[in-house]
Write a structure and sequence with these properties.
384 residues, 14 strands, four-stranded parallel beta sheet, alpha/beta
């Protein structure tokens, strides 16, 4: 039995057998989400914060502790000599295994620096599809590694820490999607890449935040389009294309705490800065920004723009990526709440070494699911 303090210091005891009956409390601004799956609750409690996390304006976070932990929680910094030895070992194993290391832009700096390829979900999906390596080491969260495994059924895909999950991906199951679809017979389903392989297998086409608008437009003038699971990315798409989608009520616990007043405060401190935020933020936050962009498009913008100062509204890991692309420019995080524990705390140089040595953290997807999920992902890759 695990005690979880939520919202107004109410202590709720939940056994793993009754997670599906747990009540989600303290969601920002009345956001509602479907009941989390047993897996989501298990992961959330396994990686729950040492103290209750709060959002940018002080409200308690939802029980998605697997994604949002206090910034006091990252692993301690490695001794430089130890880090150097680990990096050398990774380089040796990478050569011996004919391995490629893929890392998301939210990963810690030391992981990005040791990776062969750093990018957003779309870039990494493309590179995973095109690789000739025998082994793919995916430094990110589980749905990303599943995508790589689906696109590379004959290759070995491993994760340094297979427990690194995504709360948003766990906000909808394949069974829930089938029930959702039953209300709208024949309607195509666009699933965000932040979903499990099982959900992708039940969908028509996948998308990332980089290509979501183009993917939805590619479906033409159909009466209804279902979009899962991120309601705020869905709202962003609606504004771009001028039509309504039928949206699932999922959200990202890392992005939703950001508030318009956080942007307003930072603009006062940095009046000469431009603001860019991720489309997983809430609509009122997007309205305050100069740009609403995927992480990949953020990187493209700062490389191409002559503007020198930027306020950034997405997970803090991207600051390292941006500084490498444009070292002469200045970047400030809009708020410290933009922190994903699954990305920041669960992949280390040590467990990259271990997974390359043992290859025992392999990510696999059953054939019957993989075949259908591959069609969904490849439909996306044909659009862009």
């Amino acid at each position: 039995c695990v005690c979880v303090c939520v919202c107004v210091c109410v202590c709720v005891c939940v056994s793993e057998s009754s997670f599906s009956h747990a009540i989600m409390l303290g969601l920002p601004h009345g956001i509602t989400v479907p009941a989390l799956t047993v897996r989501a609750w298990t992961v959330a409690l396994r990686h729950r914060p040492r103290t209750l996390s709060t959002g940018c304006d002080g409200f308690p976070m939802s029980p998605g502790g697997c994604c949002h932990r206090s910034p006091s929680g990252p692993p301690r910094a490695l001794d430089p000599l130890v880090a150097s030895a680990l990096i050398k070992r990774i380089d040796t194993l990478r050569h011996e295994r004919n391995a490629v290391i893929l890392a998301h832009t939210y990963q810690p700096p030391e992981i990005q620096d040791v990776a062969d390829i750093v990018g957003d979900s779309l870039a990494l999906s493309r590179r995973a599809r095109d690789t000739t390596a025998d082994v793919i080491v995916f430094c990110g969260v589980r749905f990303m590694a599943e995508t790589a495994a689906v696109l590379n059924p004959t290759r070995t895909v491993v994760m340094p820490n297979p427990e690194a999950g995504c709360c948003m991906a766990d906000m909808i199951t394949a069974e829930q999607l089938r029930e959702f679809k039953a209300h709208y017979p024949g309607a195509p389903v666009v699933c965000y890449v932040n979903t499990t392989a099982e959900v992708k297998a039940e969908s028509t086409v996948c998308c990332t935040s980089s290509n979501a608008v183009k993917v939805v437009q590619s479906l033409g003038n159909v009466p209804d389009i279902l979009f899962v699971p991120d309601q705020f990315l869905g709202t962003f798409i609606e504004k771009q294309i001028g039509r309504k989608l039928i949206k699932w009520n999922g959200y990202c616990p890392t992005h939703t705490p950001l508030r318009p007043e956080n942007i307003q405060q930072m603009r006062r401190l940095h009046p000469d800065a431009k603001v860019m935020v991720h489309p997983e933020t809430m609509p009122e936050v997007q309205t305050e920004a100069d740009y609403v962009l995927s992480t990949g498009h953020m990187c493209d913008l700062v490389k191409e723009s002559t503007h020198r100062k930027w306020l950034v509204g997405t997970e803090r890991g991207i600051l390292h990526t941006l500084k490498k692309f444009a070292p002469e420019k200045e970047f400030h995080l809009l708020h410290d709440c933009l922190y994903c524990a699954s990305m920041r705390e669960m992949t280390t140089l040590e467990n990259v070494v271990t997974c390359l040595e043992r290859l025992d953290t392999r990510i696999t997807v059953p054939d019957e699911i993989s075949e259908r999920a591959r069609m969904t992902i490849e439909a996306m890759l044909r659009v862009v």
